[in-house]
Design brief:
The chain has 834 residues and is mainly β. It folds into 6 domains: 80 residues, Immunoglobulin-like (Sandwich); 128 residues, Galactose-binding domain-like (Jelly Rolls, Sandwich), CATH 2.60.120.260; 83 residues, Immunoglobulin-like, CATH 2.60.40.10; 135 residues, Galactose-binding domain-like (Jelly Rolls, Sandwich); 129 residues, Jelly Rolls, CATH 2.60.120.260; 134 residues, Sandwich (Jelly Rolls). The chain is built from 1 helix and 54 strands. The N terminus is likely disordered.
Length: 834
């Protein structure tokens, strides 16, 4: 009985315990939201035009157990409709960023959707050839290419492909096209397309396979150039080629960059690009000659072989170089056996070749043997190989790929030997290089001379340029291919003009795989690059000559600053005499005349200077004012003097700021420097005494015809302010007079900035022939950006008194003509002897 009672008591107590626990007023805590997890955002690959809702299957769950899917937002640069449907007619990669933000918690997740390109329709070679599917198939980033200052935007417009183009410096920049076209070997194809352009523009058409490494491209139609002028009206264009390779990886390319030296920006439209099997056209074209030039300039005493580097290729017969017949005639039209370079002369070289179908090709070249002076300075470092190479940064070094190369310098013999064996892939796979040791100046002409031989007769190339870390990898300043070395030392010459901007370059001798390659030792004995001493058609082309020049002796530091509107000369040490720091200008005076020299001057610390007018060499002084005291306030000083009977030409006006009686380190400021004969209306003899006059160039404002313009010198160049545009192109204009130009090919270069977008005209006229123009062309300024303008022109006959104009007036219909401020940083002309 007791046991049963005890058990009942325990059961009751346990029940009371359970009830008390169940009714405990302390709740279980809710988790705090600190993270949100996305699901359903895995990357995906879609078929072309497959329906895809970017939110389908995407969820967001917080660590607090709450579903935040309804809070999801997204952003993307791709087109997504209001109903969240991705535009899958756009092939390639689409990036979508999903985001949920709840209070202070923000979670993001990226998702990448790849839309595959459509496949070509049955019986078709191209994807989307009629652009019914927009840009699909034509925007592959592995095919399309933009570089060298180019730009390209491809869009679909009314069932056509619209391509907005800024032309780069190469034919293929920019380009678009398609690869993986299944071309069959030994089959002829015809490629046709419809096109029009906003302006007439020539494009290059290419067929082949793009490669991911050198040589970058396999040409399916070698030596067959296809270029078409696209006009402003719709037209159909076509060309044929015969595929001779077992390669179905290639395709077609439309190259929209610089063709034939013309970099034309345009908007082009394309439609109905079609490839069909065809039959070859009858071969009615002669072989194509390569390596020939219309005009070749060589210097007296050099060696010239008209056959070097010249090849011929025929679509029917292939390489027919050995069939070329070369005929040389002298100035008397008599046949000679070689080019005699012992004296100045002109020769005519005719190249003739025909194929097995009797199709002929003839090319006539003019070879001028010219006498030219060159600087004694050799730009090449260690040119004779007589010094040991620097161990850290050797002046000469070898780069190679695919070959076995052993190189050595023998400073006793003064030679550099390169022993080459193997079969590397390219001409540049073995290089002897000197890099960044010298500078080539834009517009200057140089002579490269080198002495070399080979243990087995062979060919090499030589080039100078800039190596880059990305495409285009190399900028060429000079190149000469197929230089035939013999087994004896011979001296070779290359004459070239620099048409690229001034820069440090490298010289490269290429000895890799090429036509005429042979294993063995190539030995270099001497290398020289010397600048030609040619006429300077526009003096002070960069406006660095301000009329005066600052000179100081070794060990003295002095600087000239004109940014404050005066000549501020700062010196730190006095040197050994007053002449150790000089601020000078040259001039001529007349005998037995009275002159007045005036100038404003002050010093940052009170000090004295010497003022002199004298003839160097004979040291005759017309003015010798020593210890001329300056204060810290601007003061006008006047010196009157009379010349003697002689020693009045070739004088120097000099302000000496070296060791004087009251020398003090600091700055001397000079302004309004003037020297005139002391008679009424005497002309100013000092050039740019106020720091504002441009030395060399002039401004014609033609104020009587409502055109106003002025020109002043600034630290940035010649600043031209056009206040009013006149009715003609030349009202107003900047000009420079050139005394003489001989027949030849010339280039004019300008660098200019403007505060307005407008068109300007370069005009070259002959005042003695009624201002007849021998060349003119227009270019457009870019607001607050420098434009670099290059024009080529030909001088057919000897000319004198040539006027070079930059016109700021009204250019006429189709051009923008506005007032503004224009800074001409540089303008120069050079003869192009390439």
């Amino acid at each position: 009985m007791k046991k049963r009672f005890l058990l009942l008591t325990l059961v009751l107590l346990f029940a009371v315990f359970l009830v008390s626990c169940k009714n405990d007023p302390t709740p279980t805590p809710t988790p705090t939201l600190t993270a949100i997890t996305f699901s359903g955002v895995a990357d995906a690959t879609l078929e072309f035009q497959e329906e895809f809702n970017v939110l389908t299957g995407v969820t967001a769950l917080g660590n607090d157990g709450v579903d935040y899917t309804s809070e999801i937002t997204y952003t993307s640069t791709s087109t997504i409709s209001a109903s969240h449907m991705l535009d899958t007619s756009q092939t390639g990669n689409h990036a979508i960023r999903y985001e949920v933000e709840v209070g202070t918690v923000k979670q993001q997740s990226w998702r990448y959707i790849t839309v595959k390109s459509p496949t070509a329709g049955e019986g078709e070679y191209l994807v989307n050839p009629d652009f019914e599917d927009g840009t699909a198939g034509w925007v592959d980033p592995n095919v399309n290419y933009i570089a060298d200052g180019a730009a390209m935007t491809i869009t679909a417009e009314d069932g056509t492909l619209r391509v907005d183009v800024v032309a780069g410096s190469n034919m293929w920049t920019p380009r678009f096209g398609q690869m993986n076209v299944p071309f069959e070997e030994d089959t002829t194809y015809e490629i046709s397309f419809k096109a029009k352009s906003s302006v007439n523009k020539t494009i290059n058409l290419q067929v082949g396979e793009l490669l991911t490494s050198d040589p970058w491209f396999t040409d399916f139609k070698p030596n067959q150039s296809e270029q078409r002028l696209i006009t402003t009206e719709w037209a159909t264009y076509s060309y044929k080629f015969t595929h001779t390779q077992d390669n179905k990886r290639g395709g077609i390319l439309f190259e929209l960059g610089t063709v034939g030296g013309q970099a034309i920006d345009a908007t082009l439209w394309f439609d109905d690009i079609v490839i069909v099997e065809s039959t070859p056209d009858d071969d009615v074209d002669g072989p194509v000659l390569s390596g020939v030039q219309e005009v070749v300039n060589v210097t007296v005493g050099s060696t010239y072989d008209p056959a070097a580097g010249v090849t011929a290729y025929d679509l029917t017969d292939g390489d027919v170089t050995d069939q070329i017949v070369i005929t040389i005639k002298d100035s008397l039209d008599e046949v000679v056996t070689s080019i005699d370079t012992s004296e100045e002369a002109t020769f005519t070289v005719t190249y003739y070749v025909k194929d097995s179908l009797d199709n002929e090709t003839e090319f006539i070249a003019t070879v001028n043997v010219v006498s030219m002076l060159f600087s004694d300075t050799n730009l090449v470092v260690n040119p004779s190989f007589e010094e040991d190479l620097d161990e850290t940064t050797p002046e000469w070094f070898i780069w190679s790929e695919g070959f076995t190369v052993v190189a050595d310098i023998d400073t006793t013999e003064g030679v550099y030997t390169v022993d080459i064996s193997g079969t590397g892939p390219n001409p540049y796979s073995v290089q002897l290089v000197q890099e960044n040791q010298f500078e080539l100046v834009e517009g200057a002409t140089y002579r490269l001379m080198f002495t070399a031989k080979a243990s087995v007769a062979r060919s090499i190339n030589v080039t100078a340029g800039i190596g880059l870390d990305a495409d285009p990898w190399y900028i060429t300043y000079m190149r000469k291919d197929a230089i035939a070395l013999t087994t004896d030392f011979e001296t070779y010459e290359v004459l070239f003009t620099v048409t690229q901007p001034t820069a440090e370059v490298k010289i490269v001798f290429e000895m890799g795989m090429m036509t005429g390659f042979a294993e063995g030792i190539v030995t270099f004995d001497e290398v020289a690059i010397q600048q030609a001493e040619l006429p300077e058609y526009i003096a002070n082309s960069d406006f660095s000559d301000v009329g005066f020049y600052l000179w100081h002796a070794d060990g003295i530091t002095s600087t000239l600053d004109m940014s404050g509107g005066n000549f501020a000369i700062t010196t730190d040490l006095p040197g050994e005499a007053g002449w150790t720091t000089q601020f000078n200008q040259y001039l001529d005076l007349e005998a037995n005349k009275t002159y007045e020299l005036k100038f404003d001057a002050m010093a940052s610390v009170a000090r004295d200077i010497n003022v002199k007018v004298f003839k160097p060499g004979v040291w005759v002084f017309h003015v010798e004012e020593l210890d001329y005291m300056l204060t810290t306030e601007i003061v006008t000083y006047t010196i009157e003097f009379t010349t003697g009977a002689d020693n009045v030409d070739g004088l120097t006006v000099s302000f000496e700021m070296g060791l004087t009686e009251n020398f003090a380190a600091g700055t001397v400021a000079l302004d309004n420097i003037s020297l005139k004969e002391k008679v009424a209306e005497a002309p100013e003899l000092i050039v740019n005494g106020n720091t504002e006059t441009v030395v060399g160039g002039h401004m014609y404002d033609n104020s009587g015809e409502a055109a106003t313009g002025q020109i002043v010198w600034t630290v940035d160049g010649a600043e031209i302010t056009v206040l009013t545009v006149g009715p003609d192109a030349w009202t107003p204009h900047y000009y420079y007079m050139v005394e003489e130009m001989l027949p030849g090919e010339y280039t004019i270069v300008l660098r200019l900035t403007a505060d307005v977008v407008r068109d300007l005209r370069v005009n070259i006229v002959l005042p003695d022939s009624g201002y007849a123009s021998i060349f003119h062309d227009e270019f457009e300024t870019v607001e607050d950006e420098m434009v670099y303008v290059v024009f080529n022109f030909t001088v057919a006959n000897p000319l004198t008194n040539i006027k070079i104009e930059l016109d700021f007036g009204t250019l006429g219909e189709g051009f923008t003509s506005l007032p503004g401020v224009f800074t001409l940083h540089e303008i120069f002309i050079y003869q192009n002897l390439n």
